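Figure S4 source data
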Amino acid sequence: MRILFISNYWPPEKGAASRLGMELCKALAADGHQIEVVTGFPRYKMTETPAEYAGKPHIVEDVQGIRTIRVPLPHASRDRAIQRGIDWLLLPRAFKKGIKMAGEADVVYTVLPPITMAHAAAYAAKTKNAPLVTMYGDIFPNNVIELGALSNPTLIKYCRKLEQFAYRVANKIIVHSDCYKDYMVSDAGVPADKVEVVFNWADTEAIQPRERENEFRAEHELQGKFIVSYAGTMGPAQGLQIAFEAAELLKEYKDIHFLIAGDGQDRERLVRLLASSKFTNVTFLPSQPLPKYIQLMAASDVCLVTLDPKVKAPTVPSKIWEIMASGRPVLASVALDGDAPKIIERANAGISVEPGNAQAMADAILKLRNEPNLAQDIGTAGRTFAEEFASITPCSQAYLRVFEAALSTKKS
């Protein structure tokens, strides 16, 4: 099968979307499928375009074995809503040149948001006479409305039209949880047979249970500590302040230490909070490269997944699977009626607490600290579940089945 992937995120950019896209493409290519990617010059979490791309009209290159066509894209600040909105609106036009350069395709695939990627991918599907499969990482505009980042009624109405267009042009839609599918079918009116649920995944080969007392602990002088870690994006949606509130509640326990690592638009505020409150039981680090990230999780006794209480969408953060793969307990502070707590309970992989409830988080940390056998059993169960349901092999095969189903709808 010839698969054309229209991607807003692609290595060497860092982040879950880039990593998951590459891992999926490599798995499908290893199975004999022909993969071609149309993307932009690297820009995500970068202040400027890398020198080797600057000024070029386009570049065709091999990225980890995948033929990649790169075109210049807008380079707006992610922290400025107006600039980011203009960026999104310009994406379809920017992608057209790369799409025209791409070869024939049996299926076109893209990831949303940005919601306007649906326009770029729909153009590709029409140009290549191929069905379109879209995968939703978040439900837009619900995700920004809930956080208060989008409140203008006219803009909301416009974004709802973009949302409906994206649903309409897709032959098949992939979501990573049952609640997302329920929303699309019940609230957005998408036909149930158009939407398929496929979990995100972790690299269970690279991320495995390892010794806690490792080089990472020694480097940061954390030997013998009970480490509570968070590693990932630091944005308004994460509601990461709860970790600092829990650290304050647990400051009398000298063996409990919080390890917070990552980047994002909320990072500077959290750095100031850390400095002003003079925490002695919190270590704050920048985003870690993959080898260090794997060591960080191995060094942890419990790993946090947090979302702001205002986030009601049934998000299943991809780091849940990585925590499970590492054999560590998940402590999730997320909406309790969403899919993340259901998956954690199904896997017996951790504890879920009410979002924003620092006392509940602190109590759960103490429970795992005081019951090491329970923590060990939970970590082992999570690892087993990740290997069976959330590693790249079963997930890539599930994607392939969706692509084949999309192809059959096009032929019919």
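Figure S5 source data
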Amino acid sequence: MTAVRQVVSDAIWNTAIEWLAEGETTLLGLWGDAPNVHMAILDDGAISILTYACRDGCYPSVGARHPPAIRLERAIHDLYELEATGSPDPRPWLDLGFWDIAHPLGDKVPAKPPTPYVFLPTEGEGLHQTPVGPVHAGIIEPGHFRLTVNGEHVVRLEQRLGWTHKGIESLIARASLDQATRLAGRISGDSTVAYALAFARAVEAAAGTEAPPRAVYLRGLMAELERVANHLGDIGAICNDASFPLMLAQCGVLRERVLRVSELCFGHRLMMDGVVPGGVARDIEPGGTDATRFLVAEIRRVFPRLIELYDNTASLQDRTVTTGIVKPEYARQFGTGGFIGRASGRSFDARRNMPYPPYDKLSFDIPVLDAGDVNARVWIRIREVEQSLTLIDQCLDALPAGPISIPLNKPKNGEGIALVEAFRGDVLVWLRFGPDGSIERCHFRDASWFQWPLLETAVEGNIVADFPLCNKSFNCSYSGHDL
């Protein structure tokens, strides 16, 4: 994907902030690259990257006028010590006080003794706080949630994330292209295909090349298998949190079948390391096409019965309808992608709005609802499973013969950007190569950055018992967010 990057003055930077604040453009990303800060903006289907050269380590705050940027600015300060002048929230975000060094992508000074984290104040009669996490029951990544409640009703939810920070961007800056590709696919394991695809397309954009046609359709096949597996898992898990474990069991069976076919076709249940710059690492195995077609037929046979069961179970509807509402204006303001945005009226899907191969040659619909509740997020997933099955058919029908990869030289002094639709929303990758062909800087932005804040608004006014249900209906990534 081509995107223009330009170094801008204070006036242009501030004008861009006003466009964001007024809703004329959408914020795609904001990241550090000392001594600069980059901002990616979506405007009428085109991506622009603005670079601001910090003076004395400072830049004008985007979050002061556009709240979706606040957490990004806090992360930039933790990693680089670049300060957003005028930020309404200067608290740390990724640095939880147990790093050996401060500002690991900046001056790398020894860390100071941690100070207690100050949560936002609350006032009112009869309020008390319920802390949840960072250690949760069961197998789940860590994240802390501070619920302020009045009786059973949630007055405020405040999150504290960063517990799964791995230093991915620092590791990639020192890695070979092969190592960087493997790291990209491990940022968020449930979206390994999407992340690897976004990284590969960013590299290919920097190199000015495209993967061969067969590889492109194999990438599409892998991406849709990944989407189906995750949506099936989510639908079952949401119903389980609404005390209906039968759906969890039935959807779990279908998800397991998808994972087994994925392993049969591409040698790994999650298809990890399948997508690489220049194409794919392996072709579909003999028998994989027939197995995939049988899988699609089986899901089409069983899934409608599960949909009917969900729709006709009154106890499920009581829990999901009007619970955890995300207002459409919030979805638009935060540029929220995936099933969260589309359940709240924001019709954006990178496969259609920013079409990339093979989706530019495939036919599919983007389901959109405007209720914004848990039920709407379930129905978006249901409809997306149906659409993904048609896309899998189309990828298999159109799969051409030919090579599955092409040699790819490391571009020198090149830059690339890619926006790819993962199952939970759009993933952004930007990278820059140095004069020796090595990666100097690579930035990843998960869809969860613009989804986690909306969970705080969705839970307000609901009862405490509905927090797990709302949280599961979002299913934001901890690992993809924390990097």
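Residues 168-482 form a domain with the Cytochrome-c3 Hydrogenase; chain B fold (CATH 1.10.645.10). Residues 324 and 458 are 4 Å apart (CA to CA).
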